[in-house]
Structure formats: C-alpha cells, structure tokens
Amino acid sequence: MVKNYFTDLSSVFIIAEAGVNHNGDINIAKKLIDVAAEAGVDAIKFQTFKTEKLVSQGAPKADYQLKTTKKSESQYQMIKKLELDKTSHVELMNYCKEKKIMFLSSPFDFESCDLLDELDIPFFKVPSGEITNLPFLKYIAEKQKPIILSTGMANIAEIYEALETIYSTGNRDVVVLHCVTEYPAPIEEVNLSAMLTIRDAFKVPVGYSDHTLGLEIPIAAVALGAKVIEKHFTLDKSMEGPDHKASLEPDELKLLVQSIRNVEKALGDGIKRPAKSEIKNLPVARKSIVAARDIKKGQVLSRDLLEIKRPGDGIEPKFIDKILGFKVNRYIRRDEVLKWEDLKSE
C-alpha cells in the first residue's frame, strides 16, 4: 500500500486560511498567526503569487470581490496590494516557528512554487482555480511532497484528470478537498455528500475547504470522515478586502477547533459496547425478574408469581420462561429481586 501522509493522521488536520486577509501588511499577518496559534489549529495558510504571473491586466473581478472592494480597482490592482515577497515569507515562517504552528501557503504560479519549495514547506496546497492547470499540477507533484488538492468549481472528470497528472510523477501522497468556490457559499449548494463521492471514486483521503458562514458545515464534514478542514479567518470581518466578510473572527475560529476536536472524540472506534461512564447505570436503568407476591421456600415458580421491574441486578427478563418450574430455596418477599442462587431445579 502506498503511504499517504493524510491517511496516517491521528486527528483531523485543521488549516486556518489567512489567505490574503493580511491586506499586504506583515504586522496584520503576524496577528493572524497569533490568533491561529491561540485557537489551536494545526497550520495557518497564506497565498504565494507574483501578480504579473497570476492575473492579466484586464482580468475582471469576481462578483463577491466587487461587493467587498473598490469597483474602480481592477483585479490586478487589488491582488498586487496583497502580494508578499520572499523576505516577508521568511519572516512569517520564522514567526510561525516561534508560535509553534505550521506555516503553509498556496502557490499560484511556477515561480511561487519554487519559492515555497526552497523554503521547505512540508506540503503543497493547490487552490481550486488551478485544478485544470495540469502543467502546474505536474510541476508541483514533481517536488514529491504531499499535496492538498482543492476541487472548487470542478466536476468528477476534472478531478480524475488532476489526480492522474499528479500520479504520473510517482507522487500519490494526496488528499482531495471538496469545496464550493463562492464567498460566502450558499448552504443549499454545499453538497457535502460529494466529499464522499470523491473518496469512494478515487480511494483517496478527503477533506473539506469551507466558504460558508458559520461553523456547522465543517463540523458536519468531520462527522462524515474529513481528514482535513480548511476555513478562512480574519481579525475583523469589517476590514477592507475581498475575503474578510466570509471569514471567521478569532472567537469563532477557536470555537470551530474545539467543536471539531469534540466531534473527533465522539466518533470513537465504532465498536458498540457499554461506555465506561454508563456501566454504573446498568442496574439502575435495566430490569430484573422480581416476585409478584410473597413466594414461600420450596414453592414452584409459575408466571403469575413473577414480574419484571427495576433494578437490573437480578435475573435478566429474557430468562423468565427458562426459570418456570424451578423451586425457590428461600422465602422471597413481594417485589424482591430473584437471583440465580435463589433457585433449584429439583
């Protein structure tokens, strides 16, 4: 079996997606790292790009970007302000080490991929918009590092092509994230079951990159078996920028992490057996066979002498027909629980 980093995870890997919510300010970026570390996520993720390699001068903005940024500003102009250079990357990586949180970033072009590889990030996160950019996927896969592949806007055939391209390099260390690329994503369009379709179709570990408002959907994804959860966050939803309004604020991010960890604990190992905490309640909640009226020593048990009541520390109700015809070897008062040692067959 091919080893997969994400299959072997002992707990859900939670990525706090800072993205471009630093607004091009490294001090804001560091505050985001502080928030992510405090929340207890596994990694914080930024975005690495050269604007001139990513966007043409005339590229239009998405509808959600038009609502959250200046309409007079082009997508190129908007993104250029959010670009982080190599020095900023190094500074942020070092700050993450101080805060004991993993630094990740999504590359959007070949040069950015090389930069992140040079900085020795532990694995690559491929953004949804690049899933059909097969030359780029192959280039990333050839770095032979684990890959998180987002699938927003993609159909099953495009996911197949992307995975085949990655696998052609000998790199099979991939987790595939279901995603809806809208900010915010409408709840009724999330189609969370598609995550399971991806898992079953390609036999890969799966996760979920969430753009909905609130916490319910990523928590539900964990309950369904997500290995990785990614969620945008910000210092303040009212900040200027394209992604802030569809992001979690610090307290919400912390609550998400706590909720995911609780769901993980609740999922357990799948073996149905009494929980340790409930064993003490067995005799209280279950029932036993009791005397319907006083039973004399040596009297033969008949059905009219027996009832089923709490507590459950005597003979179990399922044996009521089995003990008919037995004699009792002591005087048993009405409502007293019958024990096996009270019976004799001769």
Automatic annotation (TrEMBL):
<dbReference type="GO" id="GO:0047444">
    <property type="term" value="F:N-acylneuraminate-9-phosphate synthase activity"/>
</dbReference>
<dbReference type="InterPro" id="IPR057736">
    <property type="entry name" value="SAF_PseI/NeuA/NeuB"/>
</dbReference>
<dbReference type="InterPro" id="IPR006190">
    <property type="entry name" value="SAF_AFP_Neu5Ac"/>
</dbReference>
<dbReference type="InterPro" id="IPR013785">
    <property type="entry name" value="Aldolase_TIM"/>
</dbReference>
<dbReference type="Pfam" id="PF08666">
    <property type="entry name" value="SAF"/>
</dbReference>
<dbReference type="Pfam" id="PF03102">
    <property type="entry name" value="NeuB"/>
</dbReference>
<feature type="domain" description="AFP-like">
    <location>
        <begin position="288"/>
        <end position="346"/>
    </location>
</feature>
<dbReference type="InterPro" id="IPR020007">
    <property type="entry name" value="NeuB/NeuA"/>
</dbReference>
<dbReference type="InterPro" id="IPR013132">
    <property type="entry name" value="PseI/NeuA/B-like_N"/>
</dbReference>
<dbReference type="InterPro" id="IPR013974">
    <property type="entry name" value="SAF"/>
</dbReference>
<protein>
    <submittedName>
        <fullName>N-acetylneuraminate synthase</fullName>
    </submittedName>
</protein>
<dbReference type="InterPro" id="IPR036732">
    <property type="entry name" value="AFP_Neu5c_C_sf"/>
</dbReference>
<dbReference type="GO" id="GO:0016051">
    <property type="term" value="P:carbohydrate biosynthetic process"/>
</dbReference>
<dbReference type="InterPro" id="IPR051690">
    <property type="entry name" value="PseI-like"/>
</dbReference>
